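Task: complex structure prediction.
Instruction: return structure tokens for all chains below.
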Amino acid sequence: MKFTYYPGCTLRTKAKQLDIYGRKSLEALGVDFEEVKEWQCCGAVYPISRDEVATKLSAVRTLNSAKVEGEGKLLTLCSACHHVLKRVNGDMKNDENIRFKANNYLALEEEYAGETDVIHYLELLRDYVGFDNIKRAVKNPINKKVGAYYGCLLLRPSKELAFDSPENPTIIEDFIKAIGGTPVIYGMRNECCGAYVSATNKEIAVKKSVKVTDDAMGHGAELLVTACPLCMYNLTENGNKKVPVYYFTELLAEALGVKE
Amino acid sequence: MDKLEQVKLVKERSGTDARKCMKCGKCSGRCPAYNEMDVKPHQFVSYIEKGDIDKLLNSKSLYTCLSCFACVERCPRGVAPANVIEAVRQEVIRVQGENKIQAEKVPEMIDETIPQQLLVSMFRKLNK
Ligand code: SF4
Ligand code: SF4
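Output:
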């Protein structure tokens, strides 16, 4: 099976580690993948209003590329890209009005109707590679107490994201165990970091991110992992600055022995 | 614009049925931005149902809601307060001259650490 790899804008600039170590690990695990040929930014936020169509088109283009260029398995890394692509795909499947208008705009050779599966990298590890196989491939176990930071976008709304339990998720903890770390469970792991409001109202982001980092440390976390560049930014710039935050792919590459 | 028409538009745009709300307050109880809001998430739902849109259009909550979807997740009646907040914000910024961030301001914000994702999200939320 071949996956169509979608990096998204931030992974080529401020979140290079998420991308580079993500690719290296896929190679080490023998996963076949190819980047979307002419990808565009997904738009970063899901356009909630039911009358928005134009703001969804770039996501639809990417979804359609995965269908046409690849085998219809779109692989995402950034939590926000995943959130946007997955929800827009749901609209293309279930909302006749949006499907009709988007197809009218794009005038594709064949209508797009949500045929692509949007798969987050962590879902690929769980459902396609398997955490047991990862465990077997580990060369340098992490041997640290690691706090999973889920944030919002991978989990909610769970009816649409269908990623894991929105209140008691386990996927990142299972990932941490697979790479030889000890997961630390803390209450704030699925609380918001302050998101984009940090750009206009830093105070809110500081309040939220300090709460998250304090809570994780209070439960003994030596480091945190995230899949989201915006969470990474808020937790490191606006958090308590006492606990390091890594992209989950960086720890994976380290454990697999492919991090230089 | 006629108020009734405006209320109708916001309701449609939100894609959620405010009449289903049973006023339990769970959405507001779970909201991480509750303390930063003058109008609370459950009030967005009840005010729009009552057609009381002026309070919503002028609320500072439009700019403190984090779009974290915790309220949507928690609502036992399948109502989406975040969608009402978004629909009202759109009602504000879609009017000419009402953008809350100007494109010219964005380059000034760029520094070594700020991710593109943050700039794009902010711009999408505050500019039309
Ligand atoms: S989406 Fe907005 S209103 Fe809903 S819980 Fe999050 S911050 Fe509160
Ligand atoms: S959680 Fe749902 S039912 Fe309860 S007050 Fe909020 S919108 Fe209404």
